[in-house]
């Protein structure tokens, strides 16, 4: 009986050595881009660089579409919120632009 338990625990231990966890966004944003996209951004920051990179790596919308990311004060947008326009995403902050990019990926029209 002890031999079976020992063998079983050894097998479980060996199997767990090969298990790797995925990082945050890879848990829900696994797909790589299947179409190219042109991204125009009005601001340069580490956060907008991430937004541009995510769009280019994970875009599944219309091939060679142009997405404009605009950081500009708009009193109708609260905090780090954003709004979609006809050609892209507008937000008061660079973090709002990044939130808008992730929301765009959640949209069924982009898949």
How would you summarize what this structure contains?
Helices cover 38% and strands 17% of the residues. Helix 2 links the parallel strand 1 and strand 2.
List the domain count as a whole number. Answer: 1
In terms of DSSP E residues, the strand content is 15-25%
Mean pLDDT: 83
How helix-rich are the residues, as a percent range?
25-40%
Largest sheet, spatial ordering of strands: 1-2-4-3
Q: If helices are DSSP runs of H or I spanning 4 or more residues, what is the number of helices?
A: 3
Q: In terms of structural class, how would the helical and strand content be classed?
A: alpha/beta
Order of helices and strands: HEHEEEH
Q: Give the uncertain stretches in residue-range form.
A: none
Oligomer: single chain
Cα end-to-end separation? 53 Å
Largest beta-sheet details:
4 strands, mixed
Counting DSSP E segments of at least 2 residues, the number of strands comes to 4
Global outline: elongated
Radius of gyration computed on alpha carbons: 21 Å
Textual characterization of the structure:
With 111 residues, the chain is an alpha/beta fold. The protein has one domain (27-106). The chain is built from three helices and four strands, in the order αβαβββα. A four-stranded mixed beta sheet has the order 1-2-4-3. β1 (37-41), α2 (46-58) and β2 (65-71) form a beta-alpha-beta unit. α2 runs parallel beside α3.
